[in-house]
Protein backbone atom coordinates (compact mmCIF):
# COMPACT_ATOMS: atom_id res chain seq x y z
CA UNK A 1 0.00 0.00 0.00
CA UNK A 2 1.75 3.27 -1.01
CA UNK A 3 2.21 5.53 2.03
CA UNK A 4 1.04 9.15 2.37
CA UNK A 5 3.06 11.28 4.77
CA UNK A 6 0.22 13.80 5.10
CA UNK A 7 2.72 16.64 4.60
CA UNK A 8 3.13 16.69 8.41
CA UNK A 9 5.47 19.53 9.44
CA UNK A 10 6.11 20.46 5.78
CA UNK A 11 6.07 24.25 5.23
CA UNK A 12 4.31 24.77 1.89
CA UNK A 13 3.88 28.54 2.02
CA UNK A 14 4.48 31.70 4.00
CA UNK A 15 1.40 33.59 5.10
CA UNK A 16 0.56 36.87 6.83
CA UNK A 17 -2.93 35.70 7.77
CA UNK A 18 -2.62 33.45 10.83
CA UNK A 19 0.04 31.89 13.02
CA UNK A 20 -0.75 28.52 14.64
CA UNK A 21 1.78 27.84 17.41
CA UNK A 22 1.25 24.14 18.16
CA UNK A 23 3.78 23.96 21.00
CA UNK A 24 2.54 26.97 22.97
CA UNK A 25 -1.14 26.61 22.03
CA UNK A 26 -1.37 30.07 20.48
CA UNK A 27 -3.36 31.44 17.51
CA UNK A 28 -2.68 34.89 16.01
CA UNK A 29 -4.60 36.58 13.16
CA UNK A 30 -2.64 39.33 11.36
CA UNK A 31 -0.81 40.26 14.58
CA UNK A 32 -3.75 39.96 16.98
CA UNK A 33 -4.33 37.15 19.54
CA UNK A 34 -7.41 35.28 18.26
CA UNK A 35 -9.02 34.69 21.71
CA UNK A 36 -8.76 38.44 22.46
CA UNK A 37 -10.45 39.29 19.15
CA UNK A 38 -13.21 36.78 19.93
CA UNK A 39 -13.91 38.56 23.22
CA UNK A 40 -13.86 42.14 21.91
CA UNK A 41 -14.65 42.30 18.19
CA UNK A 42 -17.57 41.59 15.80
CA UNK A 43 -17.23 38.91 13.13
CA UNK A 44 -17.32 41.54 10.36
CA UNK A 45 -14.40 43.43 11.95
CA UNK A 46 -12.23 40.31 12.00
CA UNK A 47 -13.28 39.46 8.44
CA UNK A 48 -12.10 42.93 7.39
CA UNK A 49 -8.81 42.31 9.23
CA UNK A 50 -8.25 38.99 7.41
CA UNK A 51 -9.15 40.39 3.98
CA UNK A 52 -7.32 43.73 4.19
CA UNK A 53 -4.71 43.37 6.94
CA UNK A 54 -6.34 46.07 9.09
CA UNK A 55 -9.21 46.35 11.54
CA UNK A 56 -11.81 48.64 9.90
CA UNK A 57 -12.56 52.23 10.82
CA UNK A 58 -16.30 52.95 11.37
CA UNK A 59 -16.96 53.90 7.73
CA UNK A 60 -15.09 50.83 6.40
CA UNK A 61 -17.07 48.63 8.80
CA UNK A 62 -20.37 50.14 7.64
CA UNK A 63 -19.36 49.54 4.00
CA UNK A 64 -18.39 45.91 4.64
CA UNK A 65 -21.56 45.19 6.64
CA UNK A 66 -23.66 46.76 3.87
CA UNK A 67 -22.01 44.46 1.30
CA UNK A 68 -22.57 41.39 3.52
CA UNK A 69 -26.21 42.39 4.03
CA UNK A 70 -26.85 43.03 0.33
CA UNK A 71 -25.56 39.53 -0.47
CA UNK A 72 -28.05 37.85 1.90
CA UNK A 73 -30.79 37.73 -0.72
CA UNK A 74 -29.89 34.78 -2.95
CA UNK A 75 -29.85 35.07 -6.76
CA UNK A 76 -32.73 33.01 -8.26
CA UNK A 77 -30.36 30.53 -9.94
CA UNK A 78 -28.85 29.59 -6.55
CA UNK A 79 -32.34 29.07 -5.09
CA UNK A 80 -33.23 26.93 -8.13
CA UNK A 81 -30.13 24.76 -7.60
CA UNK A 82 -30.94 24.25 -3.91
CA UNK A 83 -34.56 23.39 -4.76
CA UNK A 84 -33.43 20.90 -7.41
CA UNK A 85 -31.25 18.87 -5.01
CA UNK A 86 -33.11 15.84 -3.53
CA UNK A 87 -33.69 16.09 0.27
CA UNK A 88 -31.25 13.25 0.95
CA UNK A 89 -28.33 15.36 -0.35
CA UNK A 90 -26.51 16.39 2.85
CA UNK A 91 -25.95 20.02 3.81
CA UNK A 92 -22.22 20.19 3.00
CA UNK A 93 -22.83 18.71 -0.46
CA UNK A 94 -25.67 21.17 -1.04
CA UNK A 95 -23.57 24.11 0.17
CA UNK A 96 -20.61 23.02 -1.99
CA UNK A 97 -22.89 22.67 -5.03
CA UNK A 98 -24.46 26.09 -4.54
CA UNK A 99 -21.12 27.86 -4.00
CA UNK A 100 -19.68 26.16 -7.11
CA UNK A 101 -22.39 27.90 -9.16
CA UNK A 102 -21.71 31.43 -7.87
CA UNK A 103 -20.10 33.32 -10.74
CA UNK A 104 -17.47 35.76 -9.47
CA UNK A 105 -17.89 39.22 -10.97
CA UNK A 106 -14.18 39.13 -11.84
CA UNK A 107 -12.81 35.71 -12.78
CA UNK A 108 -9.11 36.41 -12.15
CA UNK A 109 -7.51 37.68 -10.01
CA UNK A 110 -10.16 37.24 -7.27
CA UNK A 111 -11.42 40.33 -5.40
CA UNK A 112 -12.34 41.13 -1.80
CA UNK A 113 -15.74 42.22 -3.07
CA UNK A 114 -16.45 38.74 -4.47
CA UNK A 115 -15.15 37.15 -1.27
CA UNK A 116 -17.51 39.38 0.72
CA UNK A 117 -20.43 38.55 -1.57
CA UNK A 118 -19.95 34.78 -1.21
CA UNK A 119 -19.43 35.10 2.56
CA UNK A 120 -22.65 37.13 2.71
CA UNK A 121 -24.60 34.51 0.75
CA UNK A 122 -23.52 31.43 2.68
CA UNK A 123 -25.67 31.83 5.84
CA UNK A 124 -28.77 32.23 3.67
CA UNK A 125 -27.80 29.20 1.54
CA UNK A 126 -27.48 27.08 4.71
CA UNK A 127 -30.64 28.39 6.40
CA UNK A 128 -32.72 28.13 3.21
CA UNK A 129 -31.56 24.57 2.49
CA UNK A 130 -32.10 23.48 6.10
CA UNK A 131 -35.66 24.84 6.08
CA UNK A 132 -36.45 23.07 2.80
CA UNK A 133 -35.14 19.65 3.87
CA UNK A 134 -36.91 19.87 7.24
CA UNK A 135 -40.26 20.82 5.67
CA UNK A 136 -40.28 24.34 7.09
CA UNK A 137 -41.00 27.60 5.29
CA UNK A 138 -37.66 29.36 4.69
CA UNK A 139 -37.34 32.53 6.79
CA UNK A 140 -36.24 35.44 4.57
CA UNK A 141 -33.15 37.31 5.83
CA UNK A 142 -33.62 40.48 7.85
CA UNK A 143 -31.55 43.44 6.69
CA UNK A 144 -31.50 45.14 10.09
CA UNK A 145 -29.64 42.37 11.94
CA UNK A 146 -25.88 41.73 12.04
CA UNK A 147 -24.37 38.94 9.91
CA UNK A 148 -24.38 36.48 12.81
CA UNK A 149 -27.70 37.54 14.40
CA UNK A 150 -29.42 37.25 11.02
CA UNK A 151 -28.11 33.68 10.61
CA UNK A 152 -29.64 32.64 13.95
CA UNK A 153 -32.85 34.51 13.02
CA UNK A 154 -33.17 32.64 9.71
CA UNK A 155 -32.60 29.31 11.47
CA UNK A 156 -34.96 29.80 14.42
CA UNK A 157 -37.46 32.34 13.08
CA UNK A 158 -36.89 34.71 15.98
CA UNK A 159 -34.30 37.37 16.74
CA UNK A 160 -31.60 35.76 18.94
CA UNK A 161 -30.56 36.94 22.40
CA UNK A 162 -27.41 39.09 22.62
CA UNK A 163 -25.79 36.28 24.66
CA UNK A 164 -26.41 33.70 21.93
CA UNK A 165 -25.29 36.12 19.20
CA UNK A 166 -22.05 36.87 21.07
CA UNK A 167 -21.39 33.19 21.79
CA UNK A 168 -21.81 32.20 18.14
CA UNK A 169 -19.82 35.25 17.01
CA UNK A 170 -16.94 34.24 19.29
CA UNK A 171 -17.00 30.71 17.83
CA UNK A 172 -17.02 32.05 14.26
CA UNK A 173 -14.11 34.40 15.03
CA UNK A 174 -12.12 31.59 16.66
CA UNK A 175 -12.56 29.39 13.57
CA UNK A 176 -12.22 32.08 10.86
CA UNK A 177 -8.70 30.98 9.84
CA UNK A 178 -6.14 28.40 10.89
CA UNK A 179 -2.99 28.28 8.76
CA UNK A 180 -2.75 25.60 6.09
CA UNK A 181 -5.39 23.19 7.40
CA UNK A 182 -6.63 20.62 4.91
CA UNK A 183 -9.54 22.68 3.49
CA UNK A 184 -7.49 25.87 3.21
CA UNK A 185 -4.69 23.96 1.47
CA UNK A 186 -7.22 22.45 -0.95
CA UNK A 187 -8.49 25.92 -1.77
CA UNK A 188 -4.97 27.27 -2.28
CA UNK A 189 -4.05 24.40 -4.61
CA UNK A 190 -7.07 25.19 -6.79
CA UNK A 191 -6.25 28.92 -6.68
CA UNK A 192 -2.61 28.22 -7.61
CA UNK A 193 -3.79 27.09 -11.08
CA UNK A 194 -5.51 30.51 -11.58
CA UNK A 195 -8.92 28.83 -11.57
CA UNK A 196 -11.46 31.16 -9.89
CA UNK A 197 -12.67 32.04 -6.39
CA UNK A 198 -15.83 29.91 -6.45
CA UNK A 199 -13.84 26.89 -7.69
CA UNK A 200 -11.24 27.32 -4.95
CA UNK A 201 -13.97 27.63 -2.28
CA UNK A 202 -15.66 24.54 -3.72
CA UNK A 203 -12.40 22.60 -3.26
CA UNK A 204 -12.14 23.88 0.31
CA UNK A 205 -15.74 22.91 1.09
CA UNK A 206 -15.12 19.43 -0.29
CA UNK A 207 -12.22 18.94 2.14
CA UNK A 208 -14.02 20.56 5.08
CA UNK A 209 -16.76 17.92 5.07
CA UNK A 210 -14.59 15.03 6.25
CA UNK A 211 -14.87 13.85 9.92
CA UNK A 212 -11.10 14.10 10.38
CA UNK A 213 -11.45 17.85 9.70
CA UNK A 214 -14.58 19.97 9.88
CA UNK A 215 -16.98 17.08 10.11
CA UNK A 216 -16.12 16.39 13.76
CA UNK A 217 -18.48 18.62 15.84
CA UNK A 218 -21.68 16.73 15.00
CA UNK A 219 -19.88 13.45 15.76
CA UNK A 220 -18.78 14.90 19.12
CA UNK A 221 -22.46 15.57 19.85
CA UNK A 222 -23.42 12.06 18.74
CA UNK A 223 -20.77 10.66 21.09
CA UNK A 224 -22.01 12.72 24.07
CA UNK A 225 -25.61 11.77 23.31
CA UNK A 226 -24.61 8.07 23.26
CA UNK A 227 -22.67 8.37 26.52
CA UNK A 228 -25.71 9.96 28.14
CA UNK A 229 -24.49 9.86 31.78
CA UNK A 230 -21.32 10.44 33.82
CA UNK A 231 -20.99 6.81 34.85
CA UNK A 232 -21.14 5.68 31.21
CA UNK A 233 -18.31 7.93 30.00
CA UNK A 234 -15.34 5.74 30.97
CA UNK A 235 -16.69 2.38 29.74
CA UNK A 236 -17.96 3.94 26.50
CA UNK A 237 -14.68 5.71 25.67
CA UNK A 238 -12.56 2.74 26.71
CA UNK A 239 -14.56 0.47 24.40
CA UNK A 240 -14.02 2.90 21.49
CA UNK A 241 -10.29 3.01 22.07
CA UNK A 242 -10.17 -0.78 22.45
CA UNK A 243 -11.75 -1.00 18.98
CA UNK A 244 -9.03 1.31 17.66
CA UNK A 245 -11.54 4.10 17.01
CA UNK A 246 -10.72 7.80 17.31
CA UNK A 247 -12.39 10.07 19.86
CA UNK A 248 -13.92 12.98 17.96
CA UNK A 249 -12.86 16.38 19.28
CA UNK A 250 -9.41 15.24 20.40
CA UNK A 251 -5.99 15.31 18.81
CA UNK A 252 -4.61 17.72 16.25
CA UNK A 253 -1.96 17.72 13.55
CA UNK A 254 -0.41 20.94 14.85
CA UNK A 255 -1.48 21.53 18.46
CA UNK A 256 0.58 19.31 20.76
CA UNK A 257 -0.93 21.06 23.76
CA UNK A 258 -4.45 22.37 24.46
CA UNK A 259 -6.03 24.09 21.45
CA UNK A 260 -6.46 27.74 22.56
CA UNK A 261 -9.80 27.85 20.76
CA UNK A 262 -11.09 24.94 22.85
CA UNK A 263 -10.06 26.81 26.00
CA UNK A 264 -11.82 30.01 24.91
CA UNK A 265 -14.99 28.20 23.83
CA UNK A 266 -15.11 26.19 27.06
CA UNK A 267 -15.08 29.46 29.05
CA UNK A 268 -18.00 30.78 26.98
CA UNK A 269 -19.97 27.54 27.40
CA UNK A 270 -19.43 27.66 31.19
CA UNK A 271 -20.88 31.19 31.24
CA UNK A 272 -23.90 30.14 29.21
CA UNK A 273 -24.71 26.67 30.57
CA UNK A 274 -23.13 26.28 34.02
CA UNK A 275 -26.31 24.95 35.63
CA UNK A 276 -27.06 22.67 32.69
CA UNK A 277 -26.32 19.00 33.59
CA UNK A 278 -25.33 18.52 29.96
CA UNK A 279 -22.31 20.78 30.53
CA UNK A 280 -21.31 18.66 33.52
CA UNK A 281 -21.46 15.55 31.31
CA UNK A 282 -19.37 17.24 28.61
CA UNK A 283 -16.75 18.42 31.10
CA UNK A 284 -16.58 15.01 32.80
CA UNK A 285 -16.31 13.21 29.46
CA UNK A 286 -13.45 15.51 28.43
CA UNK A 287 -11.54 14.66 31.61
CA UNK A 288 -12.03 10.92 31.12
CA UNK A 289 -11.12 11.10 27.42
CA UNK A 290 -7.84 12.92 28.09
CA UNK A 291 -6.90 10.35 30.76
CA UNK A 292 -7.74 7.38 28.53
CA UNK A 293 -5.95 8.85 25.51
CA UNK A 294 -2.78 9.09 27.60
CA UNK A 295 -3.31 5.46 28.70
CA UNK A 296 -4.00 4.08 25.19
CA UNK A 297 -1.85 6.45 23.13
CA UNK A 298 1.01 7.44 25.47
CA UNK A 299 3.26 10.19 24.14
CA UNK A 300 0.97 11.11 21.20
CA UNK A 301 0.17 14.46 22.86
CA UNK A 302 -3.57 14.19 22.21
CA UNK A 303 -5.54 17.11 23.69
CA UNK A 304 -8.98 18.62 23.30
CA UNK A 305 -9.33 20.38 19.93
CA UNK A 306 -11.67 23.18 18.87
CA UNK A 307 -14.42 20.82 17.77
CA UNK A 308 -15.16 19.40 21.21
CA UNK A 309 -16.35 22.67 22.73
CA UNK A 310 -17.55 23.96 19.37
CA UNK A 311 -20.22 21.26 19.57
CA UNK A 312 -21.24 22.63 22.98
CA UNK A 313 -21.51 26.21 21.71
CA UNK A 314 -23.55 25.17 18.67
CA UNK A 315 -25.88 23.09 20.86
CA UNK A 316 -26.29 26.00 23.28
CA UNK A 317 -27.26 28.51 20.60
CA UNK A 318 -29.62 25.88 19.11
CA UNK A 319 -27.87 25.31 15.79
CA UNK A 320 -29.31 22.04 14.42
CA UNK A 321 -26.69 19.25 14.45
CA UNK A 322 -26.86 18.52 10.68
CA UNK A 323 -25.52 22.01 9.97
CA UNK A 324 -22.64 22.17 12.44
CA UNK A 325 -20.00 21.81 9.72
CA UNK A 326 -21.81 24.23 7.43
CA UNK A 327 -21.76 26.74 10.29
CA UNK A 328 -18.00 26.20 10.64
CA UNK A 329 -17.77 26.87 6.87
CA UNK A 330 -19.69 30.15 7.20
CA UNK A 331 -16.77 31.34 9.27
CA UNK A 332 -13.87 29.64 7.49
CA UNK A 333 -14.94 30.99 4.09
CA UNK A 334 -13.29 34.25 5.20
CA UNK A 335 -9.98 32.49 5.85
CA UNK A 336 -10.25 30.40 2.71
CA UNK A 337 -10.88 33.46 0.54
CA UNK A 338 -8.12 35.46 2.24
CA UNK A 339 -5.71 32.62 1.46
CA UNK A 340 -6.94 32.55 -2.15
CA UNK A 341 -6.21 36.28 -2.44
CA UNK A 342 -2.76 35.72 -0.91
CA UNK A 343 -2.11 32.82 -3.28
CA UNK A 344 -3.26 34.83 -6.30
CA UNK A 345 -0.84 37.63 -5.42
CA UNK A 346 1.97 35.09 -5.43
CA UNK A 347 0.95 33.19 -8.59
CA UNK A 348 3.06 30.08 -7.85
CA UNK A 349 1.59 26.72 -8.97
CA UNK A 350 1.43 24.28 -6.02
CA UNK A 351 2.73 20.96 -7.35
CA UNK A 352 4.66 18.67 -4.93
CA UNK A 353 6.54 15.55 -5.94
CA UNK A 354 5.64 11.87 -5.34
CA UNK A 355 7.88 8.78 -5.23
CA UNK A 356 6.86 6.05 -7.64
CA UNK A 357 6.77 2.67 -5.87
CA UNK A 358 4.92 0.74 -8.59
CA UNK A 359 6.36 -1.85 -10.99
CA UNK A 360 8.72 -0.89 -13.78
CA UNK A 361 8.60 -2.47 -17.23
CA UNK A 362 10.99 -5.44 -17.51
C1 LIG B 1 -9.98 20.40 12.82
O1 LIG B 1 -5.59 21.26 10.74
C2 LIG B 1 -6.38 22.09 11.34
O2 LIG B 1 -5.96 23.19 11.74
C3 LIG B 1 -7.82 21.59 11.51
C4 LIG B 1 -8.70 22.50 12.39
C5 LIG B 1 -8.95 23.81 11.71
O3 LIG B 1 -9.24 24.79 12.40
O4 LIG B 1 -8.98 23.82 10.44
O5 LIG B 1 -8.07 22.71 13.65
C6 LIG B 1 -10.07 21.86 12.61
O6 LIG B 1 -10.07 19.67 11.87
C7 LIG B 1 -9.74 19.85 14.19
C8 LIG B 1 -9.63 18.29 14.22
C9 LIG B 1 -11.06 17.71 14.18
N1 LIG B 1 -11.00 16.24 13.99
C10 LIG B 1 -11.22 15.41 15.02
O7 LIG B 1 -11.45 15.75 16.18
C11 LIG B 1 -11.17 13.94 14.63
C12 LIG B 1 -10.35 13.16 15.66
N2 LIG B 1 -8.96 13.57 15.55
C13 LIG B 1 -8.07 12.74 14.80
O8 LIG B 1 -8.60 12.00 13.79
C14 LIG B 1 -6.66 13.28 14.61
O9 LIG B 1 -6.24 13.76 15.82
C15 LIG B 1 -6.43 14.35 13.54
C16 LIG B 1 -6.89 13.89 12.21
C17 LIG B 1 -7.10 15.62 13.91
C18 LIG B 1 -4.91 14.59 13.46
O10 LIG B 1 -4.33 13.39 13.14
P1 LIG B 1 -2.77 13.29 12.75
O11 LIG B 1 -2.01 14.50 13.13
O12 LIG B 1 -2.65 12.82 11.35
O13 LIG B 1 -2.28 12.18 13.75
P2 LIG B 1 -2.32 10.67 13.43
O14 LIG B 1 -3.60 10.30 12.73
O15 LIG B 1 -1.02 10.32 12.79
O16 LIG B 1 -2.41 10.05 14.93
C19 LIG B 1 -1.22 9.86 15.70
C20 LIG B 1 -1.61 8.78 16.67
C21 LIG B 1 -2.25 7.57 16.00
O17 LIG B 1 -1.99 6.44 16.83
P3 LIG B 1 -0.78 5.44 16.39
O18 LIG B 1 -1.05 5.04 14.96
O19 LIG B 1 0.51 6.24 16.56
O20 LIG B 1 -0.92 4.30 17.37
O21 LIG B 1 -2.60 9.28 17.59
C22 LIG B 1 -3.81 8.55 17.43
C23 LIG B 1 -3.73 7.85 16.09
O22 LIG B 1 -4.51 6.67 16.11
N3 LIG B 1 -4.91 9.51 17.47
C24 LIG B 1 -6.05 9.30 18.11
C25 LIG B 1 -6.81 10.48 17.92
N4 LIG B 1 -6.09 11.34 17.18
C26 LIG B 1 -4.91 10.74 16.89
N5 LIG B 1 -6.50 8.23 18.79
C27 LIG B 1 -7.74 8.36 19.33
N6 LIG B 1 -8.53 9.44 19.21
C28 LIG B 1 -8.10 10.52 18.51
N7 LIG B 1 -8.88 11.59 18.39
From TrEMBL:
Reactions this protein catalyses: oxaloacetate + acetyl-CoA + H2O = citrate + CoA + H(+)
Alphabetized GO MF terms: citrate synthase activity
Keyword Transferase: yes
Alphabetical list of InterPro entries matching this protein: Citrate_synth-like_lrg_a-sub, Citrate_synth-like_sm_a-sub, Citrate_synthase, Citrate_synthase_AS, Citrate_synthase_bac-typ, Citrate_synthase_sf
Pathway(s) the chain acts in: Carbohydrate metabolism; tricarboxylic acid cycle
Keyword line: Acyltransferase, Transferase
PROSITE patterns cross-referenced by the UniProt entry: CITRATE_SYNTHASE
CDD domains linked to this entry: BsCS-I_like
Family: Belongs to the citrate synthase family.
Name by which UniProt lists this protein: Citrate synthase
Lineage: Bacteria, Bacillati, Bacillota, Bacilli, Bacillales
